[in-house]
Amino acid sequence: MPYLLLVIVISVLGVSDVSHAEPFTLPRTNTVLLKDKHTKNEYPITIKLPRSYQKQNQKRYPVVYLLDANYSLPITSGASRFMMNSGTIEEVIIVAVGYQKGVSGLNSRIYDYTPFEDKNWQRKTGGASQYLNYLKHTVLPYIEADFRTTQKSTLVGNSLGGLFAAYTLFTEPSLFSNYIIGSPSVWFKENSILAMAVKPAANTTKVYIAVGELEESEGEKMVSGARQLAAKITKQSGALVTTNLFVIPQARHATAFPTTITQALDWIYQVNDN
Predict the structure, then answer these.
(1) Nearest-5° Cα angle at 181, 180 to 183
(2) Residue 15 class from Cβ within 10 Å (0-12 exposed, 13-18 middle, 19+ buried)?
(3) Is the entire prediction scored with pTM above 0.85?
(4) Alpha-carbon span 151 to 176, nearest angstrom
(5) Of 40, 136, 160, 191, which has the fewest Cβ atoms less than 10 A away?
(6) In sequence order, what are the beta bridge partners of 46?
(7) Could you give the CA distance from residue 19 to residue 16 in angstroms, rounded to a whole number?
(8) Which family does it belong to (predicted)?
(9) Does residue 55 sit in helix, strand or coil?
């Protein structure tokens, strides 16, 4: 289309100042670098506040903590917006933890999210215990001190992040009130997560596990792994834990997460008007 004609069309549509348009950003967000007190590693932490946060200055909010911030934050922000604004679910503070500063995202997540060292991998593995300490002693205290939060919190992990979320549930179940475990990499190091000891939860805890139906045939039998993980949680995590397993029809590993986060937030934070 010739440039002059394009300008005329844009002008007719009422978007004549395209060259000076502001880029879209997620509303009410701020990013800080938080340094691990022990390792000195730094991670970007992005906080998105709910719409009513500034006006209702006495109100406190649950917190949803996301791993893999680079992709999980835009998806979760978009998926939760209408649900929160329409009153379908509670308003929440979203906290998204990015990858270690100065390290590639792939190397950061593979090390931080894997509970066991596996020397068969070319990249370094087995840093989950260290990363969990970072969340526990640095990220959570910062959020709780600087923002109006309730005691109700949720950890969200997908793929290797789902493996990490399961590891956290097994070792520090009371650190979060709820766990959203998407397409968990149960297969890592020959299903070693299924052999872990489980510390029973001391508080009421909701665990939402989701996996794409088509992930079973993508190489790692992810549906079978998710089912075994759900069964282990139900059997060993104690009576205070409620587990919900959802196999998403027609979904692959690359497409399951938007459905996972939407359905899980609705299940955990749904507002009951009755």
Answers:
(1) 140
(2) exposed
(3) yes
(4) 9
(5) 40
(6) 31, 96
(7) 8
(8) Belongs to the esterase D family.
(9) coil
